[in-house]
Amino acid sequence: MFRKLLLSLIFCLAIVPVVFAQTGTLTGVINDSRTGEELPGVNVFVQGPNLGAATNVEGEYSITNIPYGTYTVRVTYVGYSPITQTVDINALSQTRNFTLTEDFVGLEEMIVTGQGSGVERRRLSTNVTTISARQMDRLPQVQLDQILQANISNAQIRMSSGQPGTASLIRGRGINSALTATTPVIYIDGVRVDNTTGQALGFDTGGAQSSSIADIPVENIERIEVVSGGAATTQFGSDAANGVIQIFTKQGVEGTSQFSFESSVGATVGTRDFLRFQETGDILFEPGLVQEYRLGGSGGTRDFSYSFSGSMRGDDGFRLRNNQARHNLRGTVSAAVNPAVRYTGSVGFASSEFRRDENANSLLSAYAGLEVGDFGDLSELSTEDFQDLKEFTHGYTNLIDITEDVKRFQTSHQLDFNISTGLTANTVVGIDSRSSKQLVVETNEMLIARGWVPEGTVDQGFLGRSHRDFLGLTLEGGMRYERNVGNFSSITNVGGQIFRNDDQQVRLEGSGLPDGSLNINTSEDITASDFRRTVVNYGIYALENFGYMDRYFFELGLRVDQNTAFGDEVGPQVYPKAGFVYNINDEPFFDGLIPGNVVSTLRVRSNIGWAGNFPTPFSNEILALTNPFLGGLALEFGIPGDINLKPERTRTIEAGADISFLADMFNFEITYFQAETTDALFRAPFARSYGLGSALQNLGTIENKGFEFASNMNVYRTRDANVNVRASFNTLSHKVIDNGDSAPFSVGGFGFLGSYVDEGYEVGYFRGNKPIFADDGSLDDVEPNAYLGSPVPDYFGSISLNADYRNFSLTVTSDYQMGAQGVNADEVLRYFAGLQDGRIPEASSGESFFDLAGIWVEDTDYLKVRLVSLNYRVPSAYYAGIVRRISVGFTVTNPFNFSTSVFDPEVTAISIAGLSGENPSPQGGVGVGGFAFGTESAPRHFLGRIRIDF
Amino acid sequence: MKKYLMISVVVALTIAGCDLIDGTQVRNPDLTLDDAINQPNAASAWVNGLNRRIAILYNDFLTTAELSTDNYENKATFFNQNVDGGTFRDIDNDFDDTQYQVGRLREEAQFGLAEVLEADPDAAGTALEAEMYFYKGWAHLIAGEAFVALPAEGGGVPQSPEDHFQDAIDAFTAANQIDANISYDLGLARAHYNLGNQTEAVTFARAVLDADDEYLRVVEYDGVNGPANTFQLAVYERQGFNDLQPLPRLDFLDPKYGDLPGTDQSPIVIQSAEEAYLIIAEAHLADDGLPDAQQTLLDLKALVDTRPTRDFDETEEGRKGGTTEAVPQRPDSSAFRVRADANAPFIEGLVLDRTAATNVPTVSGTSVTDDDINNLANNTEALRLLYLMRQEIFFGEGRRMFDLGVKWPVSEIEALNNQNVEDAHRQAFIPDYMPEPYSTINAFTEDGLDVTISIDMNRVIAEERGNRFN
Nearest C-alpha of chain A: how many angstroms from B119? Predict the structure, then answer.
C-alpha cells in the first residue's frame, strides 16, 4: 500500500490542473560589472505572475505577457550576486538593464540537492559545493572525478591507477560504512546513475578495477552540486549517507543559435616520479598522442530552447597496450507546453573503448614484473641485457589483449508545472542504461613469448568475456508551495521518489583455444557464470524551510523509506532533519557595529540530519550456495541471511559559520561535523565452529568528525586583472567506536598485512605483525596483529589559483593530505627478490615477511599539483564574421608530485572495492586504498587547445 | 462536484494502474536454502557439495600443514611464513581458515543428515547417507590431528583430539552400517591408530587390504568450475613466485601435484592401501615382531613401486634459497648426495636434476629400498624407517604434523565469538623433543655436493614419541 500511495502521489502531480496567465513585455541587457562582458543564460524572473526568461548570447532578455502592475524582478546567474528590483509594467514595452557582480560567497545561489526544489543558499543550514560551467570551462573535461578533484574543497579524489577505465576513490567526510564504497550517489538531471566501482564477474586484470564513474557522461554540464551527507541528504533516505553529487545539464538559452568548436591535441606521458627503476619507464613507457574534438551548440526562443554537445577523444596511452577512445553526446531540449507547463528532456550517450595491460597481481603484468625485481636490479643490467629484456617484455606485452567496450545511454524527462502563485510541481522520469563488455584473449603465441608453454603449442589459448548490463530507473515527483506573510516566509516541498537498479552480469571463459579464434565455441572447455542484483528504493519526503525577518531560517524535513534489501521484519525507515541559519549581517544593527565593507557576510548555521545506506541486495535471505562441481550440482550453505537486516543510519550534526571581509573579497567557511553511523553493516565472521560464512549484520557504530575550513580569496581585482585563491583544510577523526562484540574482520589487503575493521580503529586500518629489532638489527620480538597505520588521513585539503590578466587566464589546482599511511607491497616483493632498499636490518634479512610486515608501511603525506592551465582569448580584432570568440590554451596535468612515501600514495592495486577479505563480491564494497602494488601512476598530459565560438 | 468526481476517477485509475508499472518487485535469482533442499535428488547434490567442501578444506589446510613440518620450507611466497619457524599463533589466518572449513564440513554433513534426508527421504539408508557420515567423521579426524582442541558443534566447548577421534569412529561406524565401504574401514583404522587402539586399527587395516590392496580415495578438484588445487598452485603452477622448497632428502617427491593434460587438476590422496600396511607394520613392531614388520614393509614397498609417476617441468622454479653461507645453492641436481643427519650415510638419487623435466610419484613414493628393510637391526631402527616411509608416502597429504606431534591452537576469531574457549586452547602444542629453534627441522648444510640435514626428525620421533601402539 505504501508504494501504491507513493506512485499515486507521483502521478497525481503529473496531472495537476494548469492555470493560464496574461500578457506584457520587459526587455533588457545584462552585463558583467567588472569586464562589461554580456552574460548569456542569466535568469530574469518576474515574481507575482511568475514569468521568466533567460538572456541570449548577446545578454539580452525579453519577457512578454506580463499583466500591468508593479512587480519584483529577480535576476540570478550562477556565480554572480542576484539583483532584486521593482518594475512598473505600465506600457507595451519596457526596458531594464542589469549589471551583475561576481559572487564569491554564493548565498543567493539556488540549491536543489536535498531541497526538493531550488532554495537560496542563504536559507540553508547545510554546506553545499557548486561547480559552475564557467569553472569547468577553464579546465579539460574528461572524467567526472577529475572535474570534482579540481573543484571540491572538502572531499578527497584519489587517482587509484593510470590504467584506462579506472576511476578514483572519492571520499568526503571519512568512511561511514564498513560495507559500501565511499562514493556518493550521483544524479544527472534528477536521474540516479550507476556509480559502481568493480564488477562482480569482471576480469580484474591483476587489480585494475573498471568503474562506472569513468564513463558518466560529462558533456554539456551547466552545474554540479555536491553535498557531503547529513541533513543535506535526508531527502534521499536510505541511499545517501556518503553524500550526493547532482549534475544539471545545459538547457540552452533564448536567442540566436550559437555554436562552439573545440580541438585539443597533445601527448600523454608516463609519470616516472615513483618508479623504482627508471629502466621500467624506458622499457614500457612511450608518449602517446591525445586528441579531442568537441562541437556544441545552443539556442532557442522563449518557448523552446535546445543545447547539445558532442565530443570525440582518442588517447594512444603512455605505455604499451594502454589506449582508449571516447565518444560522447548530450542533448537537452526545453519547451513551454503552455504558459504553465514546461517540458525538459535530456539525452546523453557515452561510448568508451579501451585496452589495458595486466596489472599488479598478475604474472603477466610487465610493469609489476619489472618494478618488483622479477628481472633483478634493472639499473645494473648491461646494455645488451637491457635490450634483451626490452625485446622480451615488448614481445609478450604487445600480444596481451584485454579490451573493454562501454556504451552508456542516459535520459531524463521533466515536467514543471506552474500551478498558481507560489505553487509549483514537477515530475522526473529517467533511465541510465550502461552496458560494458570485457574481452580477455590469451593466445598461444603470447604464452610462448612469455615462455610459459613450449614453442609449437597451439591448444592452450584462453578467451574470457564478461558482460554487465545495468539499468537504473528513476521516477520522482514533487510539489513546492512558497508564500510570504509579513515577516514570515515559507517554502514547503513534498514528494516521492522511486529508483530501481537492475544489474545483470554474465561471464564466459573458454580454454584450450587455437589462435585466431575469438569465438568461445572454439574452446575445449567452457565455463559460464551469471550474477543478478536488483534493488528498489521508494520513499516520500516533506521538507519545510521557514524564514523570519529574512535572516532567521529554520529547516525541518522527513523522509520515509522502504527498500527491497531490508529484511522481512523491517518496516519503513524514517529519516528526520532539522536546521537553523542566522544571517547576522542582515540585522539592521550590524552595519552600525561593523561597517558592511569590512565584514560583508556573517552567518552561523547548524543542523542535524539522518541518512542511510541500504544493505547489499538479497543479503536478507537464507540462501543455498549452488555450484557446478565435477559434472553435477553441488549444494551447500549460502548466505545465512537476516530477516532483521536494515539500513545503516548516519546521524550528522553540523555547525558552522561563513564570514566575508572587504565586500566579499575574502571569504571563509568553517564547519564542524560529527557523523555517527549506527547499525553499521558489518560482514563479521561467526565463531568458526558454526561453519557459516560471514553474514551482513547491523552490528557496529562508526564515528567521523572534523573541521572543514575553506577560503576563497579575491586577492587582486581590477578591470584588467583578477586573482583568486581558494584553499581548504579539513581535519578528520575517524574510527569504529563499537564493533557489536564481533571479531575483527578484513575488508581487503593481503594475508600478511590486511585492511581490517575493529573497535577503536579506523575502517580499513592496516593490521599485521610489527617487528621490534634489537640493537644489532636482529629481530628481537614481534607484536602480533599490531595497528600499523591507516589509509585515512588526519588532514587533507586543496589549494587552487585562478588568475586573469586581460585576455590571459591561468588555473592551477593542487591537493594534499597528511597523517595517512600506505603499504609498499612492491617493496615486499623486492625483498623476496633480494633487492630490498635497506629498510630491513641486515641481521633480520632472513626473517619471515609476516613478522616484518610493519616495516613496509610508510607515511603517505603528499602534495600534488594536478593541473596547470593557461588560456588566451584572442582579441576580436583578429577575426570577424560569424566567429564570436577564439581562445587558445595549454594544459599540463599531474605535473608535480611531492610525497613522503617512496611509492605513489594514491595508487592502489586492491581494496578500492574490497577485493579480498570477507567480502564475497568485488563490486561496490568498502574500499580504502593504500596498497601500492605494481600499479602505474596517473600519466601526465600536455594538451594544446583551441576553441572557436560562432 | 464534477471536478471532485473527475479527480476521484483519476486517482482511482492511477492506483489501479500502478501494477502495470510497479517496479518494486524484485526477484532473487538464487535459491533459498529451503527451496534448494526440496528439489528432487537434493541429497545427491548435497553430497556433491560435501565433495566440493572437502576440496576447499584441503586448499586451506594443506599448504600450511606441510609448511608446519620438515616437508617444506617457504622461501618466498605469500603463503604462510610463520609456521616454518614454529610460530603457531592463534591469530594466524590460515589456522582460522582451516577451522572454519573443518566446522563447515562437519555442519554441512550434519545438516545433510538432519534436514536434507528429511526433505529427500529416498536417500535415507543409501550410500548418500553413508557419505554424509563419512564427511562428518573426516571433519572430526582433521580437527583431532591438527588442533589442540576444537568445538564439535557451533559455539561448543573445545574438545580434545581423543574425543574428536572417538566422534570420527562413531561417524565412520554409522557410515559402515548403512553402506559397508573400504573407505570407512580405512577411516576407522586411522582413527583407532590415532587413539593407539592397536587391535581395532589392525582389524580395520586388514579389512581394507582384504578388500582391495591397492585402494585409493582422493579429493578431486574441478579445473573448469573450481575450486582448483591450491597446493598444486603452491608447489608447481606459480613456479618461482610461490617458492616452496622441500627438504633436500624429499626432493625426489616434489611436486606431487602439477598440471594434468587440459585443465584437470591433480587430486589429493587422502586414503590409500599404503596406510593399512603402515598400521599393520607398526603393530608388528609394537608386538616385537620385527620379521613380520619387515615383510609388511616389503609388501608396502612393492605396492609403492606400482604407483604411477609423471614428468613435470619445474625448471623455472629451480631450487632457490641459497642465501646463506651454509647453503650457497639449494641442491638442484642428481650430483648431490644427501644424508638424514651427520651420522647417517650419504644417499644418492634423492635430489633430481632441476634443469630438466623431473619424474615424480603422484600417489606415493619412497627412497627406502628392499635392502634397507631387510637389513633392519632392531625395533628402534625399524620404527625410524617406518616413520620415514610414512613421511615419504604421505608427502604432500598433510599427515606429517600428526606424526611430529605438533598441533595448532584454536583461532582468535573462534575465541572472540565463543566464550567456551579458554586461554589454554589458544596455545599451540609443540612437543619438547622438537628442536630449538623450530626452524632447525628445515636446516641443512652443504659441503660441495654433499648435503647434511641438520636433524633427522624421524629418528627423533622414533626415539621420543615411540610406537603409536605402545
Answer: 14
Contacts of A471 in chain B (CB under 8 A): none
In what side-by-side order are the strands of the sheet with A779-789?
A: A745-749, A753-757, A765-773, A779-789
Q: How many CB atoms lie within 10 A of CB A106?
A: 22
C-alpha cell at A810: 591561468
When pLDDT is cut at 50, 70 and 90, the band that residue B15 belongs to is low
pLDDT at A823: 94
Instruction: Determine whether the interchain pair B36/A626 forms a contact, defined as Cβ–Cβ distance below 8 Å.
Output: yes
CA distance A860 to A631: 50
DSSP A936: P
- Taking CA atoms, A861 is separated from A65, A170, A905, in Å, by 61, 18, 8
Average pLDDT estimate for A798-827: 94
**DSSP3 helix / strand / coil % (chain A, rounded to 5):** 10, 50, 35
Tell me if B331 sits within 8 A of B446, measured CB to CB. yes
For A916, counting Cβ atoms within 10 Å of its Cβ (0-12 exposed, 13-18 middle, 19+ buried), the class is middle
Q: Which residues of A320-335 are buried (b: 16+ CB within 10 A; e: fewer)?
A: bbbbbbbebbbbbbbe
Which residue reads 565593507 in cell numbers? A597
* Residue A211 DSSP symbol: B
Closest CA to A205 of A353, A319, A318, A355: A355
Calpha distance B143→A771 (Å, rounded): 31
CA separation (Å) from A350 to A131, A149, A536, A643?
21, 21, 25, 40
Task: Choose among B235, B249, B251: nearest CA to B457.
Answer: B249
Which chain A residue has the Cα nearest residue B221? A630
The answer on pLDDT for A512 being more than 50 is yes
Q: Which residues of B touch A534 (CB under 8 A)?
A: 26-27
Could A689 and B18 be called an inter-chain contact, meaning their C-beta atoms sit closer than 8 Å?
no
- Strand segments, DSSP code E, in B39-166 are 72-76, 150-151, 158-159
Cell numbers at residue A324, please?
Answer: 582508449
Whether A850 has its CB under 8 Å from any CB of chain B: the answer is yes
Rounded to whole angstroms, the Cα distance separating A534 from A502 reads 4
Q: Distances from the Cα of A895 to the Cαs of A797, A903, B394, in angstroms? A: 18, 16, 60
Which DSSP string do the residues of A691-760 spell out, in sequence order? -PPP--EEEEEEEEEEEEEEEEEEEEE-SSEEEEEEEEEEE-EEEEEE-TTPPPEEEEE-SSEEEEE-TT
Element (DSSP H or E) covering residue A75: strand A69-77
Judged by CB atoms closer than 8 Å, whether chains meet at A632 and B36 is answered as no
Q: How far apart are CA A911 and CA A790, in angstroms?
A: 13
Q: Are A616 and A179 in contact (CB under 8 A)?
A: yes
B48, B76, B412 ranked by CB distance to A743: nearest: B412
Rounded to an integer, what is the distance from CA A745 to the centroid of its chain? 27
For chain B, say whether A8 makes contact (Cβ under 8 Å): yes
Query: Percent of chain B at pLDDT above 90?
Result: 78
Look up residue A635 and give its amino acid: L
CA B168 to CA B135: how far, in whole Å? 9
* Contact assignment for B81 to A849 by CB distance below 8 Å: yes
Q: What angle do CA A23, A29, A30 make, to 5 degrees?
A: 115
Contacts of B324 in chain A (CB under 8 A): 846
Query: What ipTM was assigned to the predicted interfaces of this complex?
Result: 0.93
- Residue range A113-122, pLDDT digits in tens: 888 888 988 8
Question: How far does CA B399 lie from the centroid of its chain?
Answer: 6
Please determine, for residue A558, whether its predicted confidence score (pLDDT) is greater than 50.
Answer: yes
Apex B122 CA angle, B119 and B126, nearest 5: 115
Long-range contacts of A375-380 (CB under 8 A, 24+ apart): A376/A833, A376/A835, A377/A277, A377/A835, A378/A277, A378/A279, A378/A280, A379/A277, A379/A278, A379/A279
